[in-house]
Amino acid sequence: MIPAAQNLGLWEIGGSVLMTSYEGDLHAPDINYTLKNIQPAVSGYIRREVGRNATLRLNLMVGKIAGADKSFEKPAWRQIRGASFESTIVEGSVLAEIYPLSFFSLKNSPSNAEDMPRGSQRGGTRLFPYALIGFGAAFSNPTVAWNDANGNPQIDPSLAQMDKNAKTKRTHFVLPFGAGLRYKLTDHFTIHLEGLLRPTFSDYLDGFSQAGNPNKNDWFFTAGIGVGYTLPGKNGMYSYPTVN
Predict the structure, then answer these.
(1) Which residue, 74, 114, 151, 205, has most beta carbons within 10 Å?
(2) In sequence order, which residues have a C-beta less than 8 Å from that of residue 84 and are 6 or more positions away?
(3) Percent of the chain with pLDDT over 70
(4) How far apart are CA 146 and CA 107, in angstroms?
(5) How many C-beta neighbours within 10 Å does residue 17 have?
């Protein structure tokens, strides 16, 4: 006999432990495959079901980003310029999770194994890929070590002064997007792995622009692991059978 379905609410709470990777004027490759200047971050979220294939979540992330010329031997001028920065990063965002394999199943009380919701504890897959896209705002307050106190042949002093005097916004519009995998541990608990690119549409995330490449905006990347807990409730659209 299959137990009656366990009601799950519309809401989930959770969090993640992350690493951040910055890309901008003080970083060399476009893809940080060497994991240079990786920094830590944490995030928390509140998520709500909006359909069988989608959720919306409010996400808050707090961490650090950093970059340093001397982390890269090529091109050789980076070792000479030797500038670096670090910054706290705080981002608030709204993210849509899209599940092509229908992570959620309609609430019911199945009468046989064939009728059981997909992703339940008895049979069916527990691993679900998803895409992420959203928008938000990121706050940074970079501290730049210019390495120009005694002059620097790789730093134009007039351009550096423009950056130092620039009255820039500390809050930047971001459009995060990426993908993840969610694994269902129990009716209420899931774990997830995900990575997101976070374009900022600003060249001052690192406090360095005119003295570097003012034609290319900065962005950063996050990757991490997290856990979520679906709150119980009678009004949820979807549920899973209770497991003995």
Answers:
(1) 205
(2) 26, 66, 67, 68, 69, 70, 144, 145, 147
(3) 83
(4) 59
(5) 13
Q: What CATH number is attached to the domain comprising 162?
A: 2.40.160.20
**pLDDT-based confidence at 183, cuts 50/70/90?**
very high
d(CA 26, CA 191): 34
Residue carrying the six token digits 């979520």: 228
For every residue of 48-103, DSSP letters joined together read EEEETTEEEEEEEEEEEEEEEGGG--SSTHHHHH--EEEEEEEEEEEEEEE-TT-S
- DSSP string over 163-212: HHH----SEEEE--EEEEEEEE-SSSEEEEEEEEEEEEEES-SSS--TTS
pLDDT tens, position by position, 53-86:
899 999 999 999 999 999 999 899 999 999 999 9
Whole-prediction pTM value?
0.83
Q: Which pLDDT score, from 0 to 100, does residue 104 have? A: 58
CA distances from 12 to 50, 100, 146, 155, 233 (A): 12, 19, 45, 50, 11
Which DSSP helix (H) or strand (E) runs through 158? helix 157-165
ω before 75 within 30° of 0 (cis)?
Answer: yes
At 204, which amino acid appears?
Y
Distance, CA of 226 to CA of 244 (rounded, Å): 26
Read off the pLDDT of residues 224-237 as tens digits, 9 standing for 90 and up: 999 999 998 765 54
Range of the domain at 140: 5-241
C-alpha–C-alpha distance, residues 95 and 134, integer Å: 4
Residues 126, 159: Cα–Cα separation, whole Å: 55
